[in-house]
Design a protein that fits this description.
With about 575 residues, the chain is mostly helical. It folds into three domains: about 1-195 and about 210-245, no CATH class; about 310-485, no CATH class; about 490-520 and about 530-565, no CATH class. The protein is built from 23 helices and two strands. It has helices at about 5-20, 25-30, 35-45, 65-90, 95-115, 120-140, 145-175, 190-205, 210-220, 220-245, 250-275, 280-305, 310-335, 340-355, 360-370, 380-405, 420-435, 440-450, 450-480, 490-520, 520-525, 530-545, 550-565; strands at about 50-55, 60-65. It is a multi-pass membrane protein. GO terms for molecular function: NADH dehydrogenase (ubiquinone) activity; oxidoreductase activity. InterPro entries: ComplexI-like_HydComp, NADH_UbQ_OxRdtase, ND/Mrp_TM.
Length: about 575
């Protein structure tokens, strides 16, 4: 039975190799979504604990299926399957459809492989394969915006991979093995923790490492955006679950830092997302906000390791809810380009209500589970957590109201092809029922049906919608229209780099131009031993450099500052 594990990866790898034959590419394109189906079946059929070792691959590859991996595998395979089927029809007129699905197949292989990986090098290899292949999905359109998004994304990917490789090397040196399970709490120093938080935080959208997500989501075609926002973003969370010492040691300072960063992202994503005018970019900021809540959960675990099983259940439950709802909204954006019927409106409205935490949806279950973490935190978190979660739900409601306002169809015309609405319906059913049917969510589901939870969720939705309507009317009356470019702080970074470049051209670069003149000054003055002549020539040389006075002033200020210190 363990031989089924490598078959999950051998099928997509075989299709990747066959893609080198041009005559087979149309067939491989049609088969690409179905390559995820064996992983979906295996996640339910294989028992937890199934494992296989391949000693000749990398540094000794070990593939396995634990309880956390089984949930992530089923969720990820479902999203890649349905989004791929949707994409076959959505991009039927795309002249480069075969190229898109080649990168789709590569990224899917990496995403499935990192879930099964049980050793450090295999995880890093598949994580890198997924991340780098996603570049092909982002730049697929070839537009200037897509190329810029791809460059920013790939830059952060390289930084993240360098951090992860450094962290895993340090872990392997300290433990003497590349196995994940042999890491002890004593091996996690500040350097390793920082590298792991940065490396996986880039994929997760951790502030301030988030700015590639809005650019990537906006540039990627709808099917690629669905897996970026639903499946691949969860790889960052899974990386934290695999490699951080969660449940093993108490790190209250690190936990408080992550909790603060989590809620900062939760509210920051809402504030910036409300100013967006492109639905896919708005969904990116919604993902930043929702992943901030998961970051908060990881922080809780670092501060309360004894309650790790409960926190793990909450995190996986929230990841399940968010991934399904966000992918459904991406597919709904594509549907609005073809039709405005009742089905399209349902695919917009129901997942949006779920993300906002409306009663009787998966969202209210996830938010109820998060509230159960309140007793695990120390003051002031334990006192303020219910209010913060309510404010976060209110912000998500505002964000979803803005999304509906941007995407709501104006007419009822158009006919949807079955290849698009069938995957969308499948994902819509998963959003509404998967969380309710998951056994581990039984307690949170029961708590979400209490009158207090229903009342709180209902009032939050009504208040959020009312605030959005009032805010929209007020902005319209005052003629105010706020807009923050996608990537937000990236704009500031680019301006800062531009300022440095101008400074280089005006101040530093002339130094190198002046250097040869100063070095050759003795040779130029050879034979001219009288001081007045040499001084006059030196003054002439220095006057040619218009910024010499500024350099002299800077040196004087530095010397003066050193005397004060």
């Amino acid at each position: 039975m363990s031989l089924v594990l490598p078959l999950i990866l051998l099928l997509p790898l075989g299709l990747i190799l066959a893609w080198s034959i041009p005559a087979l590419r149309p067939l491989i394109t049609l088969l690409t979504p179905w390559a995820a189906l064996p992983a979906l079946v295996a996640s339910y059929w294989l028992p937890v604990g199934t494992e296989i070792q391949i000693p000749w691959l990398l540094l000794g590859t070990r593939l396995g299926l634990d309880s956390t991996g089984a949930l992530f595998l089923s969720l990820t395979a479902l999203l890649w399957w349905l989004a791929g089927l949707y994409g076959l029809c959505y991009q039927v007129k795309d002249p480069h459809r075969e190229r898109f699905f080649f990168f789709y197949l590569l990224a899917m292989t990496g995403n499935l492989g990192l879930i099964l990986a049980q050793d450090m090098m295999s995880f890093l290899f598949f994580f890198a394969l997924m991340s780098i292949a996603a570049y092909g999905l982002i730049v697929h359109s070839g537009s200037e915006e897509a190329r810029r998004a791809g460059h920013v994304y790939l830059t952060l990917v390289i930084i993240g991979e360098a951090c992860l490789l450094s962290a895993l090397i340090l872990l392997a040196v300290k433990t003497g093995t590349v196995e994940m399970s042999h890491s002890s709490p004593a091996t996690y120093g500040p350097v390793v923790l920082t590298l792991l938080l940065i490396g996986f935080g880039i994929k997760l959208g951790l502030l301030p490492l988030h700015f590639s997500l809005p650019l990537a989501y906006g540039a990627t075609p709808v099917p690629g955006g669905a897996v970026l926002g639903g499946a691949m973003i969860n790889a960052g969370l899974l990386g934290w679950l695999r490699f951080l010492p969660l449940g093993e040691m108490a790190l209250p300072q690190w936990g408080n830092g992550l909790m603060i960063a989590g809620f900062a992202a939760a509210f920051y994503g809402v504030l910036v997302g409300l100013t967006q005018r492109e639905p896919k970019i708005l969904l990116a900021y919604s993902s930043i906000s929702q992943m901030g809540l998961m970051t908060f959960g990881v922080g809780v675990s670092l501060g309360a390791p004894a309650h790790w099983p409960l926190v793990l259940t909450v995190l996986t439950l929230f990841a399940l809810h968010h991934a399904l709802a966000k992918s459904a909204l991406f597919l709904a954006v594509g549907l609005t380009h073809h039709s405005g019927g009742i089905l399209v409106r349902l695919t917009l409205l129901l997942p949006a209500l779920a993300l906002a935490g409306a009663p009787f949806t998966s969202g209210i279950i996830a938010k109820t589970a998060l509230k159960s973490l309140s007793p695990l935190t120390a003051p002031p978190w334990s006192d303020g957590l219910p209010g913060l979660l309510f404010a976060s739900s209110l912000g998500t409601t505002l964000l979803m109201a803005r999304f509906i306002n941007l995407t709501w169809p104006k007419g009822l015309g158009g006919r949807l092809p079955p290849g698009m609405w069938l995957p969308a319906i499948g994902l819509l059913l998963a959003v509404n029922f998967a969380t309710w049917l998951w056994p581990a969510a039984e307690q949170a589901a029961a708590s979400s049906l209490t009158s207090a939870a229903i009342k709180s969720g209902g009032w939050g939705i009504l208040l959020g919608v009312a605030l959005f309507i009032l805010g929209s009317l007020l902005c319209h009356r005052l003629g105010v229209s706020w807009f923050i470019p996608s990537g937000d702080i990236l704009v500031l970074i680019e301006r800062w780099l531009s300022f440095i470049a101008r400074g280089w051209n005006k101040v530093i670069h002339p130094i190198f131009r002046l250097q040869p003149q100063i070095l050759t000054l003795p040779q130029r003055l050879s034979g001219q031993w009288d001081l007045p002549t040499a001084s006059a020539y030196l003054e002439t040389v220095l006057r040619r450099w218009k910024n010499f006075g500024l350099l002299f002033l800077m040196i004087a200020l530095l010397l003066f500052g050193s005397l004060i210190i």
